[in-house]
Amino acid sequence: MQVPDTMFHDGAAYERMMGRWSQRVGSRFLDWLGAAPGLDWLDAGCGNGAFTEIIAARAAPARLTGIDPSSGQIAFARRRPGARGASFEVGDAQALPFADGSFDASVMALVIAFIPDPARAVAELARVTKAGGMVATYMWDMRGGAPLAPLHRALLALGHPAPLPPSTEASSLDALGALWRGAGVTEVTVETFPLTVTFDSFDDFWQSNVRPVGPLAAVLGHLSGAERDKLREHLKDSLPSDHEGRIAYGALANAVKGRRP
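The structure assignment produced for this chain is given below.
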């Protein structure tokens, strides 16, 4: 199995949490890939279709397919106006239901750290890519450079466990490069994308990040009212804000690309 449907089942909640981040980093990643128009694309682990929509808008694909283990996320993706030309299905990135050499460009967006066996998923991604085709991914740097890092730090400061994805180590530049070379991918290149996002207010930050989705959902859901109040106050005191109450901070995404020989 890939990511449990119960971890990322709510496409709307995920969009509220990660939408402003994923749109920015997805656009930078696509520019970095520099893919030609008219390609057949696979978006493996497509989630709610955020990056699929960017591909549709900016890469002029001939064909675009998204696959994800979460039926809830796939349902949300199918409703995205900008992704109506794409086909979506429920499935596992570790066992892709496509023939060898089916796509010109096969990508994973912000998912590899959540896959139990990243090497298997990368091998599958390469398998379904045509000879000479592009194989690529990007992932938040989960060792402190992810968008939810402030929330993780606050929970730890208050004595609560803050679980990370099962394959956190796969999010580093070195690990991504090694995974790609291990799958036989050639012309391997890595890159880091720093970016900053601004929240209109602390309430905007709070409502965006304390969502019933992802690894932290269970922890947040078990906090008492008093514990949630403490968490809120800790974050409010620790996050930087300007004179208008806006909160801005940065995150890092690591990326890798290469060619199937």
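Interim note for the steering committee: The CA atoms of residues 32 and 191 lie 9 Å apart. The domain at 11-146+166-196+251-259 is CATH 3.40.50.150 (Rossmann fold).
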